[in-house]
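protien #1 (seq + structre)
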Amino acid sequence: MTSRPAPTDHPILDHLRQRWSTFAFEPRPLPPGELRSLFEAARWAASSFNEQPWHFLVAARDQEDEFARMLSCLVEVNQAWAQNASALVLSVTRLGFTRDGKPNAMARHDLGLATGQLTIEAVSRGLAVHPMGGIVPDRIRELYGIPEGFEPVTGLAIGFAATAESLSEELRRREMAERVRRPQRDFVFGGSWEQPAELD
């Protein structure tokens, strides 16, 4: 498995350093039980009023028809590399509270927390996860019968990271690009907006 740990400025958990969104996957199935553990990690994410608005559609690569159907819900550029993943997942969130039907402003946030926990659980097991905004929501609604009040949000490719040599030239360039992030002073403020927090 290719390893590209993040060049962090401060100490963090190694699983967080090792997480990155590879385009290169080995086309092989996951061991039995792996997906259940990933969804169990998602299950225990925090959520507003414990609403747990997240839902996931999943297709493992050894379910050939289902895998092909889910692959068709990704935009074409993502299909080209995601076809090698061990599993594909589509995330969906419930937009309203079950307790009173009012809009849940935290629904996408809570889905993100669940997806984040799933991702770090995957990394802890030697797997890679690549989240995708490039999905076709109307096709997902049609193929899977998504009801009103629910929104398809992202796709996930899950599997074993491969070497960049398996990719097209363009994707290989993106795969090998330097890993960069904005420094904390650009987004961690104290006192007033855009005033870097004094934490040391």
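ok now protien #2
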Amino acid sequence: MDDKELLIGHEFRHFKGNRYRLEGFAKDSETLEEMAIYRALYGDGGLWVRPAKMFFESIERDGKTMKRFELIEE
């Protein structure tokens, strides 16, 4: 099992502040790229997908480096 699989069901905070739950992973049928599937924990609870690499990457904003999605430890 990949270590990322252990994070399924956990909550993350997007760098802009909203909270999401990681629902699982899937592969893009055309490129076979691994995708992260996550659900908004606000509003209508929409289901979203983005490349897993992007979900777990660090980004730079206003001269600060931060995770795009930070695991919420509770």
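The chain has one domain: 3-71.
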